[in-house]
Amino acid sequence: MQKTVKNRTFRIVLLSLVTKKRITLSIAAPQLHPNQLPFKWYRYIDDIWGLWLQGEEEFLVFVNVMNSLYPGVLEFTYELSDSEVSFLDLRIKLEGGVLTTDLYTKPSNLNLYLHYDSYHSNCTKKGIVFSQALRVKMICSDPEKTQQHFGELRSNFQDRGYPSSIVDPACERVQNLSREDLLAGKGRRTRKPVRAPLVVTRNPRLPNLRSIINKYFHILQLSPNLMNVLPSPPQVIYRQPRNLQSHLVRAKLVENVKNVHKGCYKTHFKNCVTCNVLQETDRVYSNATGETFTIFSTITCTSEGVVYLINCKDCGKQYVGETGGELRVRHRGHRQEIRKGNTPLGQHFQICKNFDLIGLQSLVNASKQKREAIELRWIYRLGSLSPVGINVKDVRTVS
């Protein structure tokens, strides 16, 4: 049960099921006579609306019995009226023996619809206006009050920055719909053929992808192979970009890891050649610029995906490299280069014999392109480009 609290949707469903079970058992309590039960009752999670045909005293007895069944767990409050009562966003009235409905809003309601200047797409904003207009149309049984609420809706959306060119067409479109058809619901619709999805991250600078695809899709249809793969234009689906919440909140709980030291350390494996030259430190010093940089990764000779520094102890020149494999395997390759002298690094250490090795940054599971980009940044930071250093890469490609 501990995991259920992480899922808000499941938590609401669970609450609804438990509440329904308890309410059903309460209404079927043996203390209550069939004449002491509601004529009709409808429930939405923990809100109930019903019709009571007996007097007020009998109703109070019914409520007291209900509250006595689950003391401290389930307690009912009520609103009783001969003429009208509110339920969720409905105001239900009894007029001339007929039940009528009107829109109900709490006095504390601030109408904080999504602001028009938000990062959301225009489709989302138009959908909000249309859905709210549709809600008014379906709730209000009096056409005059429907028009009154449409006017209030226009004013509320204009206060949130929505232009009339979006609000008015949505209201006019809903006004032309039949309330009876809306309340009857949609019949079974013919299922549309599934289209290939084109998933892109939402960005306001993006052009209208749907119009571009529809404009040039006929070019893809010229290829028989593509015609079989994409018989119809793909469906553009926008993925929500990372917002402030996604940067600050993590769904996965991070375990508290104690005694994790950042820096470069030896493993002290027996006969490890790399550990003999590996310098244990949490900072790296640039011999060219005199700057000192902090190492924020934990790196050993067995670390994979590493940007590293080779420091010549004789002349002070430095070399920055990267590897996707283990650091000790890359060090073994450099030793072979020194023996052969077929690289600038190998040629340098055929003259200078002493060097040490420092891990600068761990890039586990990073692509080679990303490792090379980080490598170039370290070359720029440490000033290890030839002739001051040993690197021969063009630092101008650093981004």
TrEMBL record:
<feature type="domain" description="Helix-turn-helix">
    <location>
        <begin position="112"/>
        <end position="168"/>
    </location>
</feature>
<dbReference type="InterPro" id="IPR058912">
    <property type="entry name" value="HTH_animal"/>
</dbReference>
<protein>
    <recommendedName>
        <fullName>Helix-turn-helix domain-containing protein</fullName>
    </recommendedName>
</protein>
<dbReference type="Pfam" id="PF26215">
    <property type="entry name" value="HTH_animal"/>
</dbReference>
<dbReference type="InterPro" id="IPR035901">
    <property type="entry name" value="GIY-YIG_endonuc_sf"/>
</dbReference>
